[in-house]
Every structure is written in structure tokens, then in C-alpha cells.
Amino acid sequence: MSSPQAPEDGQGCGDRGDPPGDLRSVLVTTVLNLEPLDEDLFRGRHYWVPAKRLFGGQIVGQALVAAAKSVSEDVHVHSLHCYFVRAGDPKVPVLYQVERTRTGSSFSVRSVKAVQHGKPIFICQASFQQAQPSPMQHQFSMPTVPPPEELLDCETLIDQYLRDPNLQKRYPLVLNRIAAQEVPIEIKPVNPSPLSQLQRMEPKQMFWVRARGYIGPELESPGAQG
């Protein structure tokens, strides 16, 4: 349940090579821009480090971008298997080595290894397929949920929590720390529960998720979409 957000008038224009000016858009645009070093070899840098280790979603996204650069634009990624084998070091860049495991007429497979300090920290295999009609369905049907335009994002919910004197007294450090974070991903819970009811929530949650701001033209190409 995600979708890229197109640039607004006056943002990300010009030669389209300059990233938008707001911080969250810059984070997304620059993180997913890999530096080519050689054929099937790329370097990724870090612009958002929420902890002492690298954010796993960043590594997955950069690895998928690296894999997509080695396939034609008429295929879509339909399967991704990932393994985190070591903690990522936020002090050094990550090298992404792409192996062209198989290139077929309908399916192509790419293996990607993310390396730091000469050792793999992450490995994945991505399978790409040409768009074809098929009676087979390998996923659950879309649940009936409100559209994202009718829901509040996490920042608005946290702001409401901070206005509650009881919650502010019980969770002052946690709520303020979350509110101060610059997160490049917009998340809208479908059924947010008050903090007082967290212990009684169902073991299932649904979210609308998308990147904040414009993520660049390259990720709009069919070969790089998930």
C-alpha cells in the first residue's frame, strides 16, 4: 500500500538533477541514488542513521536499486528474499555487488551482496518478471480500509498524545524523542489505538506507507518498481 509522490510545482524542477529542498525529500532522494563504481558495482551512502547501526530498510532499498540497474526496463521485481548477516557500520559507505545469476526471456534473477570492511553485511536475491496475464494470485486480497487521505499520520498522532496530560506525564521522553525525529517515510496507521490500550491491541496492524517527497525519475521506471 505505497505510492511515490510526484513533485509539487516549484519543487524538484529545473534540470531535475537537483534534489528537493526539504530535508525529508533530500533524505529519500540521495539515499536511493547509488554511485556506480564499475559494472554491477555501486556505492551507497547514509544520510539518516536512527541508531548506532544502519537502518535495515535503507540497505534493502539500495540493494533493490542496484539489482534493478542490471535489468531491462520492461521487467518488474516480483520476489525479493533478504538476509541480514552482520550489523551495518554507519561510519563507512556500503558497496553493492550485483551478480547476474540468470537472464531469461521472461524471468531474470539477480543476487546482491552488500559489503563493508571486506565482509558481507546483507545478501539478497531479486527475481524480475515481464508483465504477463496470469490466473495465479500469490497474495491476500486488499482489505477494506479507509483511504490514506482520511487518516492521520504518526506525527499528528504523537502531537495529540503530547497534548494529553496523562500520557505526557507517563511517556514524556519517549514521545518527545519520536516527535523530534526526521523520518523520511510517511506512515498512517489504519486503526491507531490510544497508548493506554496498547496492551490490549490485536496482534495485527495495518498501515499506509510512502516516501516523503519526490523520489526521483529513476525509481519510476518499470525495472525499479516493486
UniProtKB/TrEMBL annotation:
Record key words, sorted: Hydrolase
InterPro entries for the chain: Acyl-CoA_hotdog, Acyl_CoA_thio, HotDog_dom_sf, TesB_ACOT8-like_N
One GO BP: acyl-CoA metabolic process
Domain Acyl-CoA thioesterase-like N-terminal HotDog: 47-129
GO MF annotations in UniProt: fatty acyl-CoA hydrolase activity
Top-rank taxon: Eukaryota
Coiled-coil stretches: none
Region (Disordered): 1-20
GO-annotated cellular components: peroxisomal matrix
Family statement: Belongs to the C/M/P thioester hydrolase family.
Name under which the protein is recorded: Acyl-CoA thioesterase 8
Organism: Pan paniscus (Pygmy chimpanzee)
